[in-house]
Amino acid sequence: MIHKGFVGKEKGFIKAKNDVKVKFVENGTIKTEGSIIVSDAVMHSNLAAGEKIVVEKNKGLIVGGKCRAGYEIRSNKVGSNFATK
Questions:
Q1: Residue 45 neighbours by CB under 8 Å, 6+ apart
Q2: Which positions ≥6 away from 26 have C-beta within 8 Å?
Q3: What is the pLDDT of residues 37-72, one digit of tens each?
Q4: Nearest of 28, 32, 34, 21 to residue 64 by alpha carbon
């Protein structure tokens, strides 16, 4: 569990066997066999979860980057009105 956010600066990497819980992810990579639970936002990051990715509290935003999950990806909002790929 990461109580604050994870700013990877395009080089930061987290690898875990169990669930990863974090406030936000920015320009980082997270890979886990479990689930990734983000309470605020995922920005320009690469997430890979064996089970699910959940981004539903607060902003619940996924923008930029890649998200892959074995079973489910849940988010309040995906993408941006500002043309982020």
A1: 8, 25, 26, 27, 28, 29, 30, 64, 65
A2: 5, 6, 7, 8, 41, 43, 44, 45
A3: 999 999 999 999 999 999 998 889 999 999 999 999
A4: 28
